[in-house]
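The freezer alarm interrupted the setup, so I double-checked each line after restarting. Inputs confirmed:
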Amino acid sequence: MDTSKPGSNHETGHVFYGRGRSRYLFGNRIRAFFAYLVLLFFVVFAVGPVLYLISPALRDSISLFDYPPKLIPDDPTLDNFRFLFDSTRYLSWALNTIIFAAGTTIISLFTNVLAGYAFARLQFPGRNILFFLVLSTLMVPVAAVLAPTYLLVREIGELPIIGRPFFGLDTYLGLILPCTVSPLGVFMMRQFISTLPVGLYEAARIDGASEWRILFKIVLPLIKPALVVLGIFVFMITWANFLWPLVAASGDDYRVLTVGIASLKGQFVTHWGVLAAASLMTLIPVTIVFLFFQKWFVQASMAGALKQ
Amino acid sequence: MAEVILRSLVKRFGSVPAVDNVSLQIPDGEFLVLLGPSGCGKSTILRLIAGLEDATSGEIVIDGDLVNFVDPTRRNLAMVFQNYALYPHMTVYKNVAFPLETAKMSRDSVKEAVSRVANMLEITEFLQRLPEQLSGGQRQRVALARAIVRQPKVFLMDEPLSNLDAKLRLQTRIELMSLHERLGITTLYVTHDQVEAMTMGQRIAVLHEGKLQQLGTPAEVYDVPANKFVATFMGAPPMNLIDGELQNNGTEWVFTREDYRLVIDKVQMNIDEDALLSSKGTVSLGVRPEDMRLASSESKGIPGVIRFLEPIGSDLFVTVDVGPHSLQVRLPPKTQVATGDRIEIEFDYLKAHIFNADEENLQLT
Amino acid sequence: MADSKDHVTNGVPTGQEAWAQLQLSLDQYRRMGNQYRLRTLKRASGFLAPYMILWLAFLAIPVGWAIFLSFNDDGVLAPRYWVGFENWARTFDDTELTQVVFNTSIFVVLAITIVFGLAIFLASLINNHRRGENFFKVTLYFPLLAPPILGAMIWHFMLHFDFGIVNLIKVGIFGGEGVNFLGKNPRAMGSIIAVEIWRGLGFWVLFYLAGLQSVPGELLEAAKLDGARSFRRFLRISVPVLRPLFLFALVIAIIMNFQLFDSVKILTDGGPRMGTATIVWFIYRRMFAFQDTGLAFAASVGLLIGTMLLTLAVFWLLRQRSKGET
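Predicted 3D structure, all chains:
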């Protein structure tokens, strides 16, 4: 009996309490029909808006204001895309975003794994206190630390040697480093590493391996799935970050996609067609990657929430 | 020379002492079994020696070096765990090679050492397999191989056979013993199975509630138990204990209970008289089931009623009610007795033990 | 033979040389112990250092500094000076701030109610009718791929007065003029809520779906045999099992939603007339546009405190639940 599908028994028409067999089945078919209808509605709701962008993207912005309004443009054109690549700094934004997200992900993974290992398997005085301390900053809202972090980055940027162009406002490191410190990663890594059987560590220690060796040769290979999940999670969050790059990298050279696209919406005049084109361009690569790695993405979101 | 010395070793978890002032000296090359019920501290002692736990106080010395504050990585020991602890993502070859590679041996010498050990333990055919593809017994041998390949000073084994089925256990026991003979490395072996202890150990250390109860050869521990715990722990079915009063009658000992008394010549039973005095005479008389027999019609033994018969082919085990006690007697398999029979039990006084509260008083003859 | 009163032989010979040699003084023992502990500390710090340094620099210190600066004025461009609780007092007086808190609260309540309600509903639909489960999961998840700002942008298109599809449909079917979604209150807030629902629904559907699927099948089977129909089963069995999960989700959602910023900045920039201004929007504006840093910091710290209290509530609730469950 397939206990994992509570609904499936309906289909077989089990009679439980003397209901007419045909009525039971029929009622269920109607219910199923409406259920799928509702679900499909929301699917359209979810995907539709993006598809709707195709129309403005492919036509001249002015024609958008034509009356009577037409959904399908008379002469579709790729001008918007051309404008996007030639006259705006879209490619630069894209590149910056990739560097930003990838850099944050790599550094984040590295530091989180190390710290997670220490909290999980090394004994040292004050371990629990420190972990609790770190955990307590888990939910610090970005807004609260926005200004101080901005100030800090700015000040360090003025210092010799380690300042600009190495670190500071409008630098890659200045953009990346503050985003690598979410305690969530450490927490996840610690949890995951603790689930590995203690015997492995003990055997390795007796075999003479140093802690570093244990981490790299034994722990790391065994937590690969967790690394992937965390990596995707960090990447997605960083990629979508708007507020921090807005203040920390507002210069032209280091602008990221979120800030760049927002800038396309001018105070008075907005080039709607280009805006639509930009939005589409940004979503397409992510969608493709997503379709290939669906499972990992879903897991990554769950990881963010189900940190119980 | 890899002699192991434990000196007043104490390990406390919170306020509970898991290891309570244990001292042992294990000469080089000896196979010592740490025996006891679960929770008696035997595994903890092993882990303390390995360095996986820190001692609360006391000293651990291996091969003349004080080892308390030395990392387990540097103590040059090998350990075989109850669930083998093989690295699941590495092949058998890599598992066995791991300690050598950690020591930065050249690839050729590693290969040589691994194949030598693999031959010894007959695991050459699955060197390229992963642990999950092996059976329990095979994994056990891989764990052994990993331990041997480093030529450690001391072997530590934590109930390595308990995850194997009975037949495999027997086989592996023999293998372990021949291995020990061959390699001659000091071995500390933890188990709760006294049969294993008796067959494998050169000496047995019996532990209970963190304290060392007795250290001796299997024969000593069995025939001359130091206290009630050791006496009842060793032997299956366990030693029978009967409470009563022991009085000194000059040339004889008189053991009295409500329903009978035994008069024993002092020649037949040698007891520490002073110790007896200080405990005011209430003692437990201990006799093993195999040392008891039905009284011949002339002598007077302990009266009892048969309650239960267990014929197991080679012997007949009879449960006899004697007052509040239930005694087990081992009789020849074809003895004609039935439930409800009134019988008398006699025993060889030389084989009997007298315990007061917890100590044994019979002196060694 | 030696004194045979030594019944329990333990093999520890007394007076042997090697034995006596090893006797450590209490001092030596302690020193060796300390060296050992120091070594473990050094080793652990190697692992912890990279993260802890970053954490200290970019999380711990900023938090502390923010708290400190909330008692000061300026400190961003001009040198700061201490004002004590003046900023905090102002938080109660400043009408803009109170309006902003009010807005954000309304938003949080409405958004969460609608999203959770829909999500649970959809999740149970999917759970009961398994065909195409994967398809629904993937498509509903889609909006999550877009950065919030992009999502807002997309809806900007949809809601545009002139060519937004919503208006096109409305005019096409109902005639009359288009609706100015973003130019009027409370419609503007409604639009923002719509955007956030669009973004968040997929996530929460997946979340509750996972939750529903974690209800042990046996419980539902037993209920079925006891004659409970599907809604009753849901109410009496699934809901209690999911209660801790739900509470957890609620707190997380509240915390996240209180930090609404991206959509507001892009769609309405707080307008019209502060109708959609949120707390974070307020902080950003005061901090970087007006330089009224004192109040901004006070607001930030207020947000921080509120969030931390809620986080503690999560942990406390979880512990209560796990103790209270049989």
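Quick read of the result. Chain A touches chain C through 97 residues (CB under 8 Å).
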